[in-house]
Design brief:
Rossmann fold, globular, alpha/beta, 27% helix
C-alpha cells in the first residue's frame, strides 16, 4: 500500500547538451518503493536519476518537480543532503573535487550531509566517519588520497559516504558495476537493509541480481518516455545457452615481455617485481578484487606506464614494436572508463572515431570513410556522430569506444569492465565482434561480472590471469 509521497514529477522534460532526452514525464514515488529502471544505453535512465537528485533541472522550467517532505525554508540545495546519488559520473566528480583528500577526510567532509564542512568537527562526526570505515572495511584505504583510488575503490568510498546518513531517496545507477564479487555481495546486503521509509531507484543491465527479488515497481525508459511496466522476476531470467568452445591455439610471436618490474601510480606502489609475457593470439580473462591493479595492468599493456627506475624491463616486440607511443596506441586498442577523459573536451563522436584512423587526437579527417559504416551501425552510433563525446552517457561512451576499437583490425584488444554498462543488445554485438577476430589477435578482458555470459557467448577459451595482493597468478 502506498504511503508517504517522496517525489512527484508532473509534465517534466529533460534536455542534455541542448537535446531533449526525456519528455512530459509523470511519475510519483512513495516511501518503500523499490524501483528497477530498464532501457537501452542512452535512453535517459541516468538523466531521470539526475533529475530526481536536482543535478538536472526541468527543461525550460516546464512542469513541476515536488518533494513534499522538504521543510518550508529548504530549497533544492538542501535536498542533496536527503538524497544519495551513486553513479560513475558522480563519483568521478567527487574524485576530481577531492583529489588530494584522503578517504577519511572525504567522509569527514560530509559530516553534516553537505559537500563541505564550514564548522568545527564534533566528536560524533569523527565517530560516524570511523564507523563507516569499519562497516565498509576501508581501513586499508583510509589514508589514501582519492586521486589514487581505482574505479571500484572510489565506488566503495562513495557508497560509504552515502551510508553515513539515512536518506529519503537512494538513486543507484549501475551501482554494482566494477565491483568484485564479495564487495558486490556487501553492497547488495546494504541495499536490502535500506529503511522502508525511504525510496530506492536502481538502474542496471545484468538481470541475475539478488536485489531484484525485492523490486516493487519497474519503469522502462524508451524514446523519451518513462513507462510503468509489470514487475517480473528478473532473477529467474534464463542465462544464454552455452556456445560450443573452439579450442584456441595461441600464436608463437611474443608481443610484450615484462620482467622484475615495479610500477607506481601517483607515487603509490601497485606492482612489485611484476613478470609476465603476452603472446599473439592469447585470449585472457583478468580478474581480481577492486584495487588489485586490473586497470593498471591493462594500461601497462597499453603503454601508459613504464617500470620504476632500474626496477626491471618492459618491452614491446614484433608487431607491437614502435618508436612513438602514438604508434603503439594504434596497435593496442583500449576500451575502458579510464579512457573516457582521454579525448579533448570539444571532440565530437565523429572526431573521436576519426582519431582512431589517423592515430592522433589532434589531426584527423573531418569525415569517416564508408568502410566503417557497418561497425558504426552495429553499435548504433549513427545518431551520436555530431554530439560531443563528453556529453554522452556511460553506456553511449562505451559503445563509441567499442566501435572505435573495431573500426580497423588491431593486434591487441584490452577491455576493462567494458561490458558492464551495455544492454543485452550491445553486449551481444561486442561478443560477435570478438568472435570474428582473426586467430592472431590478442584479447585481454578485465572483469568481475558477466563472466558466465562471457564464457558462454565467446567461441574461444579464455585463459585466466588473477591479481591479488599485488601479485599476478597465471593459470591455463
Amino acid at each position: 500500500m502506498r504511503t508517504e509521497l517522496i517525489a512527484r514529477l508532473q509534465g517534466v522534460s529533460v534536455a542534455r547538451a541542448a537535446r531533449q532526452v526525456l519528455g512530459n514525464i509523470h511519475l510519483e514515488i512513495f516511501a518503500g518503493d523499490r524501483i528497477y529502471i530498464s532501457g537501452e544505453n542512452g535512453a535517459g535512465k541516468t538523466s531521470l536519476l539526475y533529475l530526481l537528485a536536482a543535478r538536472l533541472h526541468p527543461w525550460q522550467n516546464a512542469g513541476q518537480r515536488e518533494f513534499p517532505w522538504l521543510a518550508e525554508h529548504e530549497t533544492l540545495f538542501h535536498l542533496r543532503r536527503h538524497v544519495a546519488l551513486i553513479s560513475r559520473d558522480e563519483q568521478l566528480r567527487l574524485q576530481k573535487l577531492y583529489a588530494q583528500n584522503t578517504v577519511i577526510d572525504f567522509l569527514l567532509g560530509h559530516a553534516d550531509g553537505d559537500d563541505f564542512v564550514y564548522r568545527d568537527l564534533m566528536p560524533e562526526d569523527k565517530q560516524r566517519a570511523e564507523a563507516a570505515i569499519e562497516r565498509w572495511q576501508l581501513q586499508a584505504l583510509a589514508g589514501r588520497r582519492l586521486k589514487t583510488l581505482s574505479l571500484g575503490e572510489m565506488r566503495l568510498a562513495t557508497i560509504a559516504r552515502a551510508d553515513m546518513f539515512q536518506r529519503r531517496l537512494y538513486l543507484l545507477d549501475e551501482v554494482l558495476n566494477s565491483l568484485s564479487e564479495n564487495v558486490a555481495e556487501r553492497v547488495t546486503r546494504w541495499i536490502s537493509e535500506i529503511s522502508e521509509s525511504a525510496s530506492l531507484l536502481m538502474t542496471g543491465h545484468v538481470p541475475n541480481r539478488a536485489w531484484l527479488s525485492s523490486v516493487t515497481r519497474r519503469l522502462h525508459v524508451q524514446d523519451g518516455a518513462v513507462s510503468e511496466m509489470p514487475v517480473k522476476s528478473e532473477a529467474a531470467t534464463a542465462t544464454p545457452e552455452t556456445q560450443p568452445l573452439q579450442e584456441h591455439r595461441p600464436g608463437v610471436a611474443l608481443l610484450v615481455r615484462c620482467e622484475g618490474a615495479d610500477f607506481y601510480h601517483d607515487f603509490q606502489l601497485i606492482f612489485k617485481d611484476l613478470s609476465f609475457r603476452l603472446s599473439a593470439g592469447e585470449r585472457i580473462l583478468l580478474t581480481g578484487a577492486n584495487g588489485s591493479g586490473k586497470t593498471t595492468l591493462l594500461r601497462i599493456l597499453h603503454g601508459d606506464f613504464r617500470p620504476a627506475w632500474q626496477s626491471g624491463v618492459l618491452e614491446f616486440e614484433n608487431t607491437l614494436t614502435h618508436n612513438a607511443r602514438r604508434e603503439l596506441w594504434q596497435k593496442v586498442q583500449l576500451v575502458a572508463a579510464a579512457h573516457f577523459d582521454y579525448f579533448l573536451p570539444g571532440m565530437t563522436v565523429t572526431e573521436v572515431l576519426a582519431s582512431r584512423l589517423s592515430g592522433s587526437i589532434y589531426e584527423y579527417e573531418s569525415t569517416l570513410p564508408e568502410s566503417v559504416a557497418p561497425v558504426i551501425q552495429a553499435f548504433a552510433v549513427n545518431a551520436l556522430l555530431e554530439r560531443k563525446f563528453a556529453t554522452l552517457s556511460e553506456g553511449e561512451k562505451t559503445r563509441v569506444l567499442l566501435a572505435r576499437a573495431f573500426l580497423e583490425a588491431a593486434p591487441v584488444y584490452l577491455i576493462d569492465e567494458g561490458f558492464m554498462a551495455l544492454s543485452d543488445r550491445f553486449f551481444s554485438e561486442a561478443l560477435a565482434y570478438l568472435n570474428a577476430l582473426p586467430e592472431a589477435a590478442t584479447v585481454v578482458i578485465a572483469a568481475n561480472e558477466r563472466i558466465h555470459e562471457l564464457k558462454g557467448g565467446l567461441h574461444f577459451k579464455l585463459a585466466h590471469w588473477q591479481l591479488a595482493g599485488g601479485r599476478l597468478t597465471i593459470q591455463s
